């Protein structure tokens, strides 16, 4: 019986400490995984929300006043005489039926007046505006704008910047400011449309001097240069012969 007593306690002694040893580092594995997962997600999600957001704002068939946000808004006034301001961001604004007033605000905006006698004001940015049906006033203001009166007898004013102006159907008036840029009129019709320089306060003799010194032909287009008045700026009348242009085409 003495030979059995030393062998029995020596076998379980090394087995017991080796079993819990590998189990102790196991809880350390999830510790670094928990803080690393949420930290990269939060800063990625936050800047994506304002840049990809477009708010849809709709009026009723009555007389609405709608103010946009600082983001890119889509605003539909529907019927009625509406007043709509886009605010900041690159907005899409539709007036709908009625005599609407649309103000794009800052940003590069798209505006359509639709039916009615509408007034569109692009304000800042490079805007694209279409008056639609009716006798509209379409003003680009600051920036390089694309301004289209469409149907009706419209007043089209590109404002400052290098603008592309289209009167559309009807007898249209193209208005220019003293600080005009390099502007293009795409569809001037002699005897139907007019060029308004009333802000310049020119006399008839001064206008004759501008036409004599600054009217030229370039690539089949009539080009009017205002350098004779001591200011920069040109107006190109696409497809118009210079022999068709005289003082009767202007409003002083």
From TrEMBL:
Biased composition (Basic and acidic residues): 71-85
Chief site of localization: secreted
Biased segments, Gly residues type: 86-97
InterPro entries noted in UniProt: Hemolysin-typ_Ca-bd_CS, Hemolysn_Ca-bd, RTX_toxin/Mannuronan_C5-epim, Serralysin-like_metalloprot_C
Keywords: Secreted
Matches recorded under Pfam families: HemolysinCabind
Record GO cellular component, one term: extracellular region
Pro residues composition-biased segments: 9-30
Protein origin, superkingdom: Bacteria
Region described as Disordered: spans on this chain: 1-164
Annotated localization: Secreted
Regions annotated as coiled coil: none
Keyword Secreted: yes
Molecular function per GO: calcium ion binding
Protein name as it appears in the record: Uncharacterized protein
Species of provenance: Halovulum marinum
């Amino acid at each position: 019986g003495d030979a059995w007593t030393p062998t029995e306690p020596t076998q379980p002694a090394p087995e017991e400490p080796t079993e819990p040893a590998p189990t102790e580092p196991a809880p350390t594995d999830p510790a670094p995984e928990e803080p690393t997962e949420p930290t990269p997600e939060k800063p990625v999600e936050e800047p994506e929300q304002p840049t990809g957001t477009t708010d849809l704002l709709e009026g009723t068939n009555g007389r609405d006043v709608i103010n946009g946000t600082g983001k890119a808004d889509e605003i539909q006034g529907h019927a009625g005489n509406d007043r709509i301001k886009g605010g900041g961001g690159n907005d899409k604004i539709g007036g709908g039926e009625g005599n609407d007033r649309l103000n794009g605000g800052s940003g590069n905006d798209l505006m359509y007046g639709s039916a009615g006698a509408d007034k569109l004001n692009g304000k800042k940015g490079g805007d694209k505006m279409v008056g639609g049906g009716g006798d509209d006033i379409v003003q680009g203001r600051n920036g390089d704008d694309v301004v289209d009166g469409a149907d009706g007898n419209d007043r089209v004013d590109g404002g400052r910047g290098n603008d592309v102006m289209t009167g559309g159907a009807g007898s249209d008036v193209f208005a220019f400011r003293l600080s005009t840029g390099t502007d293009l009129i795409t569809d001037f019709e002699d005897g139907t449309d007019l060029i308004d320089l009333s802000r310049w306060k020119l006399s008839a003799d001064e206008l004759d001097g501008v036409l004599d010194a600054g009217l030229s032909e370039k690539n089949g287009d009539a080009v009017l240069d205002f350098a004779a008045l001591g200011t920069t700026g040109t107006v190109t009348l696409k497809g118009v012969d210079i022999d068709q242009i005289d003082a009767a085409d202007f409003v002083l």
